[in-house]
Design goal:
alpha/beta; 8-stranded mixed sheet; 8-stranded parallel barrel; 23 helices
């Protein structure tokens, strides 16, 4: 068998080696035919019965969740159940059957294709990935309609030797299907589609299982029982490797396993550099249920609570309104839950980051350039009642622990002033109603627009802390869309302009006595930890899974040597020189 290599998107670190187990999409075998008039209602009922059966299956999966299952799995099953209940799935295909006389499978696929094309127009990477959730739900319904169950290998019962680990290869795989493999010896996932924020990626990270997504043709090129290596760090899949390559990766896998065991011993070790400088390590979370993972990793608090995740998958129409506003009480309960779960550690809640690139209705026309449109704080100030509701909920949660409010995408002084006025209005309303809150709640600004980084004095004059959102800062500084494959290669966190803006923000903020954190992907990249330390950064906020590796890098860092070398790096304007110098920091 010929060996070949596929390149995709790395989403979960580590190395897995095993035999391929292929999942075939039911949608590939859908038949298209017209139903006679007298059989239309029977065809409608056939689709309704299939949807009801999938509902029962999802409920059964929920009740069978093991106690140690990641919270993400239960949350995603809930999302799929909500999608299945949405009229765009449960009713629209029925109308297609009645009006066009399509068979049930054809009608469902037609509706899913229409919805998918609408989601393709959404700029935001996370929301665009939700298209795959819709397709996964439809896939389950199609399998019921077609009588094709998920092909799961039997549990191995041999005694002589353990079975080879299983690598699941699919066009896409749902979190619910992942559960079906929980009792099998599966070691990783390879999918044709997906990105950093796909549910496959999120669950793979939470399960700490290597995965590579966005492989395009993997499910067609890889055959059943092929030997497969997943290099999760590089986003590379090697099919039918030579014996030499196999042995090399097995050695790397063993070394990684030992290294991870050593990392676990650092959970309770304070993050302090060799010269005794303490560093604060915070966690980025999407939901309150992420807090236990943050605490387990030893986080000092939550540096970024992405509140927009609370607005997703709510109400009767999760597709017609992807982001539907929860009530003040609902928001308050979720914020309070996170604050209580963090046991006195600070929780930084970012206000709603939605707008033109995250429309409340994906079927509506979006802006020509949504990344530059009405989003984040611009959207909130344009919808004052929505914003006021969220601010009241956050302030109410502050009565239960330390809460900080983080405002995204600020660029103008009047935006800061209007935001602070809205916060004061929310406080006044709560005081008049006799509702408790912490009057000393700190308010911070996300620095993610070059204009903000270049006009920091107006921020430090008004705000209590700063948090650098490196993902957007890089995107806006370099004028590239990091999810556009045609220009994604230009996305470079080590571009001299990007480094200048980050270093300047850290220095200016600290000189003014403000805490400054980095909450973008750079904070969790161990290859950049020493560079950020050398710039003066003392607060890192990242996904909990990245925290221990960053802590280890901090413990091994000589701050004096790093700072001196970093100053030279920041004076350089040659990208190759910068990249080489950053690599050399690792040896200090």
């Amino acid at each position: 068998m010929a060996s070949f290599t596929l390149h995709g998107i790395p989403v979960s670190r580590g190395i897995s080696i095993g035999r391929a187990h292929l999942l075939t999409p039911a949608a590939l075998d859908v038949k298209h035919y017209l139903v006679p008039e007298e059989q239309v209602e029977a065809e409608v009922k056939r689709l309704q019965d299939a949807i009801a059966e999938v509902h029962r299956g999802l409920q059964a999966l929920w009740t069978e969740l093991p106690k140690d299952a990641p919270t993400e799995l239960g949350a995603f099953i809930d999302v799929h159940a909500l999608i299945l209940s949405d009229p765009m799935i449960s009713e629209a295909p029925l109308d297609i059957i009645r009006s066009r006389h399509y068979n049930a499978e054809w009608a469902l696929v037609t509706q899913i294709d229409e919805l998918s094309s609408q989601f393709d127009e959404i700029e935001d990477e996370y929301l665009r990935e939700r298209k795959h959730d819709i397709q996964q739900v439809a896939e389950r319904v199609l399998k019921v309609l077609m009588g094709t169950a998920l092909a799961i290998p039997p549990v191995y019962e041999g005694e002589d030797q353990a079975p080879p680990s299983m690598i699941v290869v699919a066009h896409d795989i749902s979190p619910a299907d992942m559960l079906a493999f929980r009792d099998r010896s599966f070691a990783g996932f390879v999918t044709d589609v997906g990105g950093q924020n796909s549910h496959t990626a999120i669950v793979a990270r939470s399960l700490d299982i290597p995965a590579a997504v966005g492989m395009s043709q993997a499910s067609r090129l890889i055959e059943q029982d092929d030997w497969v290596i997943i290099d999760g760090d590089a986003g590379v899949v090697i099919c039918n490797p030579s014996q030499l390559v196999l042995e090399q990766y097995r050695a790397r896998q063993a070394a990684l396993t030992k290294a991870r065991k050593r990392l676990l011993k650092l959970k309770k070790t304070p993050a302090v550099t060799k010269d005794g400088t303490p560093i604060t390590l915070l966690a980025n979370i999407e939901l309150p249920d992420d807090c236990p993972a943050a605490l387990d990793a030893g986080a000092n608090g939550v540096g970024l609570f992405r509140s927009e995740f609370l607005f997703m998958g709510r109400g009767a129409s999760v597709l017609g309104s992807v982001l539907k506003v929860p009530s003040e009480d609902e928001q308050f309960e979720q914020y309070r839950k996170a604050v209580v779960a963090m046991k006195g550690r600070p929780v930084t809640i970012r206000t709603l980051d939605v707008g033109a690139d995250k429309p409340l209705d994906p079927t509506e026309h979006t802006a020509l350039n949504p990344a530059l449109g009405l989003r984040a704080i611009r959207y909130c100030l344009a919808e004052p009642q929505l914003f006021l509701t969220q601010l009241r909920a956050i302030l109410r949660a502050s009565a239960f622990g330390k809460v900080r409010i983080l405002i995204p995408m600020l660029a103008h002084a009047f935006e800061i002033d209007q935001t602070l006025a809205m916060i004061e209005q929310a406080k006044a309303q709560l005081r008049d109603e006799g509702v408790k809150y912490d009057p000393a709640v700190e308010v911070g600004a996300m620095i993610e627009i070059p204009a903000a980084a270049l006009a920091l004095p107006m921020f430090v004059k008004r705000m209590d802390f700063l948090s650098i959102g490196t993902n957007d800062l890089i995107q806006y500084t370099l004028a590239i869309d990091r999810v556009d494959y045609e220009v994604a290669h230009l996305y470079n966190p080590l571009h001299p302009a990007v480094l200048m803006l980050i270093a300047q923000t850290i220095a200016t903020g600290q000189k003014a006595g403000l805490d400054v954190a980095v909450c973008g992907e750079m904070a969790g990249d161990v290859k950049l930890t020493r560079l950020l330390l050398g710039m003066g950064l003392r607060e890192f906020s990242m996904h909990p899974a990245q925290l221990l590796a960053v802590k280890q890098e901090i413990l091994n860092s000589d701050l004096a040597a790093i700072t001196s070398r970093t100053r030279r790096i920041l004076r350089s304007i040659e990208p190759n020189e910068i990249a080489t110098a950053v690599e050399q920091l690792q040896s200090l």
